[in-house]
Amino acid sequence: MDLRYDTTIEAILEHLIANGATDLGRVFGQLFELAMQLEREQYLKAGRYERTPDRQGYANGYKPKRIDTPAGTVTVQVPKTAGHAEEPFYPQSLERGQRSSRAVMLAVAEMYIKGVSTRQAEDVMREFGIESLSSTQVSRATKLLDEELAAWRNRPLGQMKYLILDARYEKARHDGIVRDVAVLSAIGVGLDERRHVLGLSVALSEAEAHWRAFLESLLARGMHGTTFIVSDDHAGLKAARRAVFGAATWQRCQFHLAQNAIQHAPKSDIKKRIGKQLRAVWNASSLQLAEAELTALVASYRDKHPDFADWLENNVPEGLAVFSLPDAHHKRMRTSNGIERPIQQELKRRTSKVRVFPNLDALERLSTAVLVEIDEKWETENKAYIKWELLDE
User: Fold this and answer.
1) Whether 171 contacts 193, CB under 8 Å
2) pTM here?
3) C-alpha distances out from residue 181 to 37, 337, 374, Å
4) Which of helix, strand or coil describes residue 168?
């Protein structure tokens, strides 16, 4: 290590002596930058200003980047490189928790290589400190990331008592045209009382065949013991769920059910009040009282709006299965919010940079990377998501 690094470490130690643990963010940032500089020299096979026959390219300045750390959010200077034919330099110290950033970069890079939205692609690439890319570089970087993400998608699973299923749509090019493509995803609650992102599948639709293949893949990976499932009532998902998990109790997401009720309401004044009326059913203290509330609600619409009354009578009971669980589990399992908020909203935030994916592989890559990061975060949580001992009460 040269004098430059000795000086940096000495400055960090002096800062710690003067400030103690009150400014760990700055200390972490300086150490992080030092680690990345060392990594760049190892990548280039040469130190600063060093001439060696093995040198590969040269240092090309720095790019500021904000990162979240246990010591808070800090801005670090990420080293850049140029003048080499290998894939772009990206510090390994940034890899963990940054797979989705790499996936965004690769998706945009593919667009850039193919001439799609070139100006937008260049702007996004600059955010990663990358001035230019070749198709060979993109191919190599893609291969490395795909191997890692495929291993996660195919990892073994264990017992998952509760299961939440959902899908969202993204735009991707397929056979030369832009199509709406479904991203099917699943989370489960295991014996460790934590949430786990189980996997995902990119499909051209939510048809039964696609959902069924996805659910069967979860079983093939060892998932078992599922007794309760939450989802919306999409026809393809419903048919696949019955075929694969016929013995499990199904809870229709109460949020989606309320939205469906608003769509079926025959008049604007009914659309405004039906949500509140349904909450009176769902917030009842027992299944018997919920059924009584529903009976009264249906009767209130029977004379003037018989079709709507029939719809309520036939559909709302599908949202009452949660009453078979302990009261403490109701909040978590009455809707698919457990997957909608942490998974779907995060996917939307990350995919917004790309807008239209160059192919299905790019969409699968970024979606998987986002889910891996969420799953790793959940793995470190200490608070239980569901406490199983309540099942014995």
Assistant:
1) no
2) 0.70
3) 41, 21, 22
4) strand
